[in-house]
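[09:14] KT: can someone run the structure on this one? pasting the chain below
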Amino acid sequence: MITGPTFEEMLHPQTIDRRIREEALAALEGDPLNPLNLYNITWRDPQNRVYHIVLPRELTGVDAPIVLLYGMRFPSGSHKVGAAYSVLLEKQLLGEVDPDLHTLVWPSTGNYGIGGAFIGCRMEYDSIVVLPEEMSQERFDRIQRYGARIIRTAGSESNVKEIYDEVKRLRGADSKIRALNQFEVMGNYRFHYFVTGNTAVELAAELAQAGIGNGRIAAFVSAMGSAGTIAAGDRLKQVWPDHKIVGLEPIQCPTLYNNGYGAHEIQGIGDKHVTWIHNVFNMDALMAIDERDCLTGLRLLAEEAGRDVLVGRFGLDEAVVCQLSEALGISGICNIIGAIKTARFYGLGPDDVVLTVATDAMERYGSVLEGLREEEGALDAAAATAAVDGVFHRAGTDWVMEGGREAQARWHNLKYYTWVEQQGKTVAELDAQRDPDWWLAHQEQVTEIDKRLLALRGG
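[09:31] RB: done, structure tokens below
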């Protein structure tokens, strides 16, 4: 049985056996399909530094420091691989899956499916990824490279119902199928609550030592796809009770904002339902972001004319621009816009760190950029200047809904239509999530999962 790190080792990779850690780091570049890369699932680099970028004020236009955690250095190129690993590890330790008996199905709109292909095949499972046919070609290419099979369903990012229907069909046709549903399985939540959340807590102290912020995170901003990443905010709110958790979704598919629906192009978020693992009772505000702003922001960093304007006209450091041009995908741009809106909405200042995340990187969107260039033409200096002003500097406080008991209750109630009517949950199970102790119990399972894995190693 192939396993990898504990939750604690993902948080603190320096605690991994030295020989294993060294061999894993060597494999990261030299042998990327080696199962040893499971031990590279962490937010920290070989020197134990958190993968992050402090965004320049020249880009954000706000006094509050906005700090970006970026996931491109994880195996598979996205931090979603951590969620996929945690989900499979827990199922394996509990005896619910066996590589000799079961075929794994990974329902996804992209990055989790890529992570599932990477993790499942490295842990010697036959794996199938189910995702919409209109996702970027780079997603399909990676899944195949990692060794998984693909089933394409109709639609794009927001067509998750079609994914669920296909998974139900697969289950009915083959008793060996085991679906590892990121939208439902709490291993996804636990990875981000414990690993991402505690990494953020430690980063706040490290930033303060460097003269950035006051040692705390004032707000955590994350768009929701599976709503795994935003679970980090639950940990931050335990450390700092006045901390703000801000969720984002597309204007073109504002499900929580006004029960809206529709297709959109911010790949990785806005899946037209409220996920089971989303603790909406901790969300302080919801903001909607325009897909066009996200795509324009992506072009600004991807194209030479945009980078030249950022450096020459707005004074950004060329090395930072280069780093951002590699580390950001569409949802990362969305999160930055949301972080700027958050700083403005709450009136945050120079001591108030706003933390957000880049789930994946530019290399995943070459086909999207090619389509935009064909549709809109080349980006020139004038258009790039307008993009900086329009997308970032003028990001305002429109499309903002504050949380509160009534709003949070509405968000929670929306779970009924997916999870009770379609996916077989009971009303009693849904109502149980209203109790904060329900979430605490799932958080506390991190310790039990680590104990089980360590016992397996000892055996």
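[09:33] KT: thanks! The radius of gyration is 21 Å.
[09:34] RB: yep, looked fine to me
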